[in-house]
Amino acid sequence: MDAAAPGSAFDAGTRLLKKFVRFARGTDTLSVAEKVYSIAGFLAIVTTFLLVMSIQTVRLQTTYRHMYATSAEAAIGVGRINALIYAIVMESRGIYMSADRRAMKQFADGLIRRNRELADAVKAMERTVGDDDAELFSTFRQRIAQFIEFRQELVRRGLEISPAAGREWGDNDANRTLRSKLNSDLEALERIYGERARQADQLADENRYAAAYLFMLGLAALLLAGLNVVVMRGSVVGALAEITQATDRIAQGDVKSEVPHLGRHDEIGHLARAVQNFRDAVARIFELEELELGTAQARDAAMTERDKFNDKYQAKKWQLSAAINSMPQGLIMLDGKADVVAMNANYRRIYNLPETIQAGSTLEEILRHRVKSGLFSGDVTKYVGAVLERIAKREPTAYEISLNDGRTIKIYERPMDGGGWVSVQEDVTEQRQRERILERMERFLATIIENVTEGIIAKDARNLRYVFVNKAAEKMIGMSRGEIIGKTARELFSAEAAELIERRDQQLLAQKQQLEPIVDTIDNPARGRRVISARRVQIGGTGEDSHMFVTMVEDRTEKLVAAA
Fold first, then answer.
1. pTM over 0.70
2. Total number of domains in the chain
3. Are residues 380 and 499 in the same domain?
4. Residue 549 in domain
5. Which of the residues 78, 389, 460, 514 has the least number of beta carbons within 10 Å of its own beta carbon?
6. Which band of pLDDT confidence, cut at 50, 70 and 90, is reported for residue 332?
7. CB atoms closer than 10 angstroms to residue 560
8. DSSP, residue by residue, 485-521
9. Residues near 333 by Cβ (< 8 Å), separated by ≥ 6?
């Protein structure tokens, strides 16, 4: 009995295979259930593979994102630590070069602050440490700790003992050796994080292959689904529709009409024979009039429902038309073949389109009209081909075009759900003209300011750093603007001169404007003792990014010497 069971299963499989072969040759030997179940079985297999590949793709994508994020964060951390080390070294050199504790204090404060930032940066990098850099990072962290302790001691010696003691402690071979080892560690970490990035790229390549497999499996599933639709339509839906029509004829009293598909041996054949039995029963029963009455009532109800639906459709259509026509921009919707689905009045106005161009027209017809009206001079076929290509790619884009009449049109294109394209277009001619006028005015003002004989100096009122000097001010100060901009008065002038300048700034802050000239004598580090006349104005107010002090300076030294 056990041996007979496999034999029976084999015979059943053989019979089913022969049925498929005859079906492939054009003989309808399969039942509807066998057709549907076979396609559903293949579809289930493909769906299973699709699920497995989806899980694999998600896993690869998750791993890739993690590796890429950690490598990028680690690389940024290395760059920040390198910059902080360099900044600390620069602050240390400021301590070495300082002649007294007062001058050293600002560098010492900066060094301590940079030390804290360096420690925080190293601690932040611990989140990215992996198996490949754990040992190296441990050594690197110890050296950073030594580096920070070394610089802390440098500040202490410089402030508590003397600048010379700080210089002796910091400017030696041990310090340079530690710095060299830190550079080597940073380079080694950069190589490790670079290798992580390359591994992430490899995972990205694998993910692309997995995406290709998913696409092929999805295509196979789509083909099977399409095959199922074809089979259902040809073997089931079409036959059922014909049998339904025969049933309707019988219900309407045509008991002599033939019932199709009586010769089929599948479920449809059984159903056809059942309908035939129904036809015979109806012919024998004298209730045709009542059945016709019920059918008429059902038809009337269906027509009423259809009218209601048509009313709702027209209302929605009117609302949509009113909405797009009220837009200040031009709007056009295209389907996948670049045929016009809808357009508003502003779009017609931009391109002077006639009323003959409506929904259902083609983009090519619009371009032909633009060629005739002189608003388009390109190749119509190539332009339509480019639009179809963008519709196929479904990638949003934005660009500007210049019409032959001098107008500039800003175009935003976006894909629509279900296929097709929507384009919103705006006439930005006046906006671009205003921008060009503003640009010319800025160049005009810059030329005037650069060539006036009076020195003009602008300073950020929030931090008192110079942000602009003209040529005349460079000559008066005796320094280039590269040496001046970004610095404060205390970084450029003597303590006495800087104190005077800061006092004048405080007066300006209290008085808002100082249009009457104030004459001061200032020690210029490049040109010696100078007599200057200055007028000051204040732009903006406290707390604003544009808050600035503007000083107009005249050097009266030579005039006073000549007068004497």
1. no
2. 3
3. no
4. yes
5. 389
6. confident
7. 11
8. TT--HHHHS-HHHHHHHHHHHHHHHHHSEEEEEEEEE
9. 340, 341, 342, 343, 416, 420, 421, 422, 423
